[in-house]
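Cross-check.
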Amino acid sequence: MSKQADAIVAGLRRIEDGSVISNEHTIKWRIFTDKARAFFIKGKLDEAERFFKAALHQAKEGFGLRDPHAASALKNLAEFYVLRKEFEKAEPLFLEAIEILEQSFGPDDIRYWLEELCVILDNTIIFRTGLIKLRHVMSLK
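Predicted model, tokenized:
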């Protein structure tokens, strides 16, 4: 598939210099992410969660389900849940983000995220899942 066709599939348009023009979803993704962080800083956690979820939805709509931007939005929501000690909600989000990044960039580029996942979730049942994935990636070298 050509770059132009790929951009159309994701709902984006390329201009003469090859750069991508954003669509309404990609703009909302950025705005909702910023709002979520602002609400988090103010301690308004319910609103923050709502905007992190909305940002994830917009990232998937605007960039595509398997795009690194969607992985970033997944990671943001996962980190929010970790801070709230809701590890059972964080784990699948982290794992989905890692899977997207591995498909997009290969195993070398996801090591940092896997290591971060292990540190964040240390001493939890979820830690074992992250450690297993990290060992798998390390064995690919």
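The first helix runs from residue 3 to 9. Residues 1-9 have pLDDT under 50 and may be disordered. Passed to J.P. for a second look.
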